[in-house]
Prior knowledge:
The chain contains 6 helices and 8 strands. By secondary structure, it is α/β, with parallel strands linked by helices. The strands form 2 sheets. Strands 2-1-5-6-7-8 form a 6-stranded parallel β-sheet, with helices on both faces. Helix 5 (187-194) links the parallel strand 7 (174-179) and strand 8 (201-205). The longest helix has 15 residues, at 100-114.
Amino acid sequence: MAAPAAGTTGSKPPLRLLALHGYWQNERSFWERTGSLRKNLKGRAELVVISAPLSVPEPDVVATEGGADGPREDPRGWWFSNPEQSSFNAMDETKSCAGLEESLQTVAKAFSELGPFNGILGFSQGAALVAILCALKQRGDPRFQFDFAILVAGFKSRASEHAEFYQEPITVPSLHVFGDTDRVIPGEMSQELSSYFVNPILVTHSGGHYIPVCAAQKKLYFPFLDSFRT
Length: 230
């Protein structure tokens, strides 16, 4: 879902960010959840939101992302930590997962058909995927061309087959956002992910599992984004 045409701040055009939702969300629900963010970034950056390729079957009991981040209608995910049950939990330490390659193809298609993008933004499982995309970009993967990353409530995948993505320090400029009272993805997990990046910028807030847009966070968002506007 592409953002409507935005104005500009000064004479510089707004940045374009590809946005990746969390587990159990989809393009439309994440578009709705980022309303305040989009409003505050108007003229500075615009979001283009896409849906993950994996359809999440609805369980008898809703889990957490640890579990659910979104609506019951058409829930989506970027990979499953439990392929047999087509489910995901950020705490799962597994040998194998399912769906990552399909998700990489989906993101690559978005870059090809909807890009170019200046940066990429991810929330929760989407942020975990962003870290993997940063590692691939650093390796020289031509499919993923962007200048910076914003990771909100991100975490390192605990699947052993994903360990290769954390072998080398990631030099992509990054902004990491997480809540002190996040019960879905504890702040410690987001801090752990940030440690794999070179000179990460950390933004904390006192809330839970969401993207904060209060004045304190905007003071850090804006300079970070403005540094990439030409």
